[in-house]
Amino acid sequence: MRMSPDDPGQPMDPDRVDLWDARLYSEGHPHALWRLLRAKAPVHRQELQDGRRFWSVVRYADVCRVLRDHEFFTSERGTLLTALGADDPAGGKMMAATDPPRHTALRESLGRVLSARAVEARREVLLQPVDRLLTPLLTGEISDLAVAAMNFPMDFIGTLMGLPQEDWPRLAKLTTMAIAPHDASFQEGSAPLTLLTVHHELFEYFSRQLSARGGTPTDDLIGHLMSMRIDGSPPDHETIVYNCYSLILGANVTTPHTITGLVQALMDHPAAFRTAAADPSLVPGCVEEGLRWSSPASHFMRYTTRDVEIGGHTLREGSALVAWLGSANRDEDVFADPYLFDIERRPNRHVAFGFGPHYCVGGALARISLRMLFERIFARVERFEPAGEVRHLASNFVAGVKSMPVRAVPRIGSW
Ligand code: HEM
Fold first, then answer.
1. 95: DSSP letter
2. 4 in a domain, yes or no?
3. What is the mean pLDDT of residues 366-371?
4. Average pLDDT in the 15-35 region?
5. Does residue 24 contact residue 81 with C-beta atoms inside 8 Å?
6. Does a structural domain hold residue 100?
7. Which of 119, 154, 258, 275 minimizes the number of CB atoms within 10 Å of its CB?
8. Distance, C-alpha 331 to centroid of its chain
9. Which PROSITE patterns has this protein been placed in (predicted)?
């Protein structure tokens, strides 16, 4: 997805905005549209040709309100637009599709093993993926950063979940198919068929992984899910499988697009690259701005549990409501000069990891891995140069790229 609100070249009408169409995010100008909606129609209603409807909020304050308040806005019926109108079978089982208090019980123990302190203690697990991503780039040849970045989270989440390495390439592909079923590069048959294939294959896969453990928890994230207790009872097979799916999807479909988004921003702002390279203490701030800038998860959805008033509109009980994080992260009421890429932005209260009870449980893992990667990049790469056409992912959920040819110019004497 393009990261700035370039002139779309034609007048835009809030009543004709189509936030559903995956092509908007690969070929269009979503940031220009979101800016228009924030100004003119901050609570927006859209009806699809088949009669399904959803509301959208695009301002930071409204996005936070919706994500914070599970009593009015439930996650249990589904949280992604692609599944609009079909109740999520993982509701009440998968953490992301469960409301408190059950959500709290599910999340507590996973939150502990994925806390910043726990991740810091296992930095060695992240070192290999960093090197495996970076070393081939340092030959000075042209490489496709988008393709390389897609394997980066699979590399560490695969190790942390105890999954066989030979399965990683297919798992990485399946997770991208899950979030971009409309993209021709990832579609197998039609979009609905792609989703069916992905869900069937991934659920089967994790079910087999679980059975292979024969009830004995292993020393990895799957073992951790097996040994947790929810209200004193072990989770059932399905609950574990759904949460494996959620962990791998959460890691794989977001992290790569922060890498490509940040590298693109640093190519567009060479002075920022030089500043961060000269002062490693700026790397965490640079990563935070990269997260705000790229906002890889464009949206999360909720359903209203009762009639609710928002921005002068009454949403009837059972309405689908989409909180657009990508728009909130450019809200001019919250971020000074929101379209300026500023690695020293303070404060930077972006919502790239969400807000409220479902705030990304893998946030520390993502942050620490990205910091390690960019520390290493600034130490070893003099600069990146664009080396071909950037192709954007067609997905109304993930703001990302599927191809980004670059040349990394190695820093002399960095080896
Ligand atoms: C740059 C990287 C990442 C971004 C931008 C991101 C974004 C998000 C967002 C916005 C949410 C909130 C969902 C909601 O409100 O419904 C979320 C939740 C979640 N994320 Fe991430 N994520 C990232 C990395 C990861 C990683 C590395 C993992 C795996 C460890 C992960 C696993 C999850 C899970 C399981 C949830 C559900 C949490 C809950 O419901 O309590 N994410 N993520």
1. G
2. no
3. 98
4. 93
5. no
6. yes
7. 275
8. 19
9. CYTOCHROME_P450
